[in-house]
Amino acid sequence: xxxxxxxxxxxxxxxxxxxxxxxxxxxxxxxxxxxxxxxxxxxxxxxxxxxxxxxxxxxxxxxxxxxxxxxxxxxxxxxxxxxxxxxxxxxxxxxxxxxxxxxxxxxxxxxxxxxxxxxxxxxxxxxxxxxxxxxxxxxxxxxxxxxxxxxxxxxxxxxxxxxxxxxxxxxxxxxxxxxxxxxxxxxxxxxxxxxxxxxxxxxxxxxxxxxxxxxxxxxxxxxx
Length: 224
Ligand code: ADP
Ligand code: ADP
What we know:
By secondary structure, the protein is α/β, with parallel strands linked by helices. It has helices at residues 40-48, 90-99, 105-118, 123-126, 135-147, 165-182, 193-199, 217-223, and strands at 2-11, 14-24, 29-33, 55-60, 63-64, 75-78, 153-157, 185-190, 202-207, 210-215. A six-stranded mixed beta sheet has the order 6-7-8-3-9-10, with helices on both faces. A four-stranded antiparallel beta sheet has the order 2-1-4-5, covered by helices on one side. The radius of gyration is 17 Å and the shape is globular.
């Protein structure tokens, strides 16, 4: 489904990813795990099309997307800080991705209602301002905004790190349920080992831009 083929990413003189090779299967929950600064976000942003590799190829569903713009890759991304628009209400935030594609108003309304229900946002919440929502609710808005474009791949960059411990536990389960409900190929970034082990089908453990360990949680657990 997704292949990083010999992908190198540099920031000026600094090589954040040296020759990354990685294959992610269709429908799996795949996690990039590692300490801050190891290159997880860089790998995710390269897949999303916000960073261009200096070498190598990104293949998605058999198509070379290395030079494709983010909107042409069939990926939806949820950022660590959610990157929602504070001056817009929930409905308009969710609709944003579609509204720019000149979708008719009635269709837009229907799609927002549908996706909101799927991520468990109530109709009343749709009229609220972003600042009136809890962190967990804001996260659902960010996920809805990513899913409304019906991407084949969902990218999640540390989506739980801004939440308190109790909520993190609940949302782990909810995120996982959502992923299996949609059957959507998911690439998840975290520095939290428990999170990775409890949620993932497979994990790549990264260090300094390289993959140090790779496998299903049980395999990694046995090896450590
Ligand atoms: P992680 O997501 O694992 O925390 P990042 O991919 O954000 O790691 O960063 C990997 C390395 O690249 C870090 O050393 C970071 O400082 C550096 N880096 C990330 N983005 C930039 C940038 N835009 N310019 C320069 N260096 C960057
Ligand atoms: P994350 O928490 O996702 O790893 P960071 O907080 O490290 O992200 O970085 C936030 C933003 O700052 C990113 O857009 C990243 O590209 C940029 N950045 C990170 N490290 C550096 C750096 N050393 N120099 C310049 N920009 C950086």
